[in-house]
Amino acid sequence: MTKTTQFKRLLHSDRLVFLMEAHNGLSAKLVEEAGFPGIWASGLAISAALGVRDNNEASWTQVLEVVEFMSDATDIPILLDGDTGYGNFNNIRRLVRKLEQRGIAAVCVEDKLFPKTNSFIRGERQPLAEIEEFVGKIKAAKDAQSDPDFCILARLEGFIAGWSLEEVLHRAKAYQQAGADALLVHSKKQSPDEVLAFAQAWDGSSPLVVVPTTYYSAPVERFERAGIRMVIWANQNLRSCITAMQKTCRQIFTERSVGTAEDQIASIKEVFRLQNAEELLQAEERYLPKRLESTRAIILAASRGGELGELTRAKPKAMIPVGGIPLLHKLVHQFRAARIKDIIVVRGYGKQEVNAPGVHFVDNDDFENTAELLSLSKAVSHLEGELVISFGDILFRKHILQNLLVEEHDIAIVVDAAGKNRGQIKGYVDFVSTTRPYSLEYSEEAVFLADIGPDLPAETIQGEWIGLIKTTARGTAVLRTGLEELSERPDFSRLRFDDLFRHLLARSVRVQVLYITGHWLDVDDLDDLDRAQAF
Ligand code: SPV
Ligand code: MG
Description:
Helices cover 38% and strands 18% of the residues. It is built from 20 helices and 21 strands. It has an eight-stranded parallel beta barrel with strand order 1-2-3-4-5-6-7-8, surrounded by nine helices.
């Protein structure tokens, strides 16, 4: 049932119906959870919550924004306190159209002048609108609605302004004839006498609504007996949160601690429940790509890094601090930042010194006599699904991993085009030749690995593999098969990644090249370590 139909039915219910005030999305939700069938979007409460006065200081579009949040947060109908309609007949026409668009069920408009003042502030001095002018406003509002169940309530401020019962009845009849769906009779008396007198004199041809703010102590049965259809508790939520917040603020300020207050306020968990945070988690499961979530990383960190001398006497180079943080921890952090949670570290030298929170370890205890592929084979049970393989002694900028992760080819490696001139001064460089040299020109065409190894002819070298591979689930399977095939070779324990790549190339497997230019480094010796400290 639409909210407009729900509201219309409430107006014509044969039982007394109670609406409760709300002033934002959260309070609206609380009203709904308490069991109320509808919400009073109070002008007083909304303006106060916005930190301004109930004098049309908040613009009508600002009020519209608030009620839209309220409507989005709830499934019960909202009756907006539309003050005097924010102008003349023309302004209320636009208001009604906008309210319909935002899912508001009804609006109440009072027979005073714009800008209005709250009825409890010198109400007796407040001028009423001319009857004809207000009648025109109601007619215009009714003509503007497109949903036949949208309701316009006419609010009688005659008692507030000190007019007689006759005058109020006279106006009521005129507003009813203009098309008002219900009449809200307001009073600032401590007793319900005025509204009950009105109800008694009223012929019942329109539903009556009352707002017992000052005469709150009157038993509601009296309204029921008088044939009143709807009671609005107009501001109690606003007032209760003022009291609660004042108390909490005072307490936390004077105690300089949250200690005592903590048990008296809603838990963060309750806040999340009210926001329906759970729904978003479920939606993320449905709509977010799972690819990155299920990608795992294998970090090869078995070697000592003898070139670093004393520094690696007690621990492997993966645990050497760079800027105070072990290299391995930096790598793990980078993977986590890319939402890779499942991280496997192959350790060997000084394995008792290798740690990182939340990672799985596998060991290559024969690290002294073996090379990269043997280390990788120790993690063979993890060679499944989408995978990133990384050397444990490299540092790279975040964008390199991000770009690698979105590559679509089954096997992709990162090649530093700037590394092509690195020469042979360093220990072992995985030089790379490709199907196309690095170029700044844009090209749709992917680049593929043509050859790799430390001894490539200089003129064929287009870069250096930095020690990062990404594979799709299919690519991982291909890599694993290649690894298993090579493991048959008697020299398997001495084989390195370039051997694996050449093996794959010989089987016509395509390995995509993602070019970078710098923005990474490996830590092979003390000079590298110096550079890493500054990275
Ligand atoms: C409001 O809640 O803003 C009202 C009711 O209009 S009263 O404050 O009693 O005028
Ligand atoms: Mg109001």
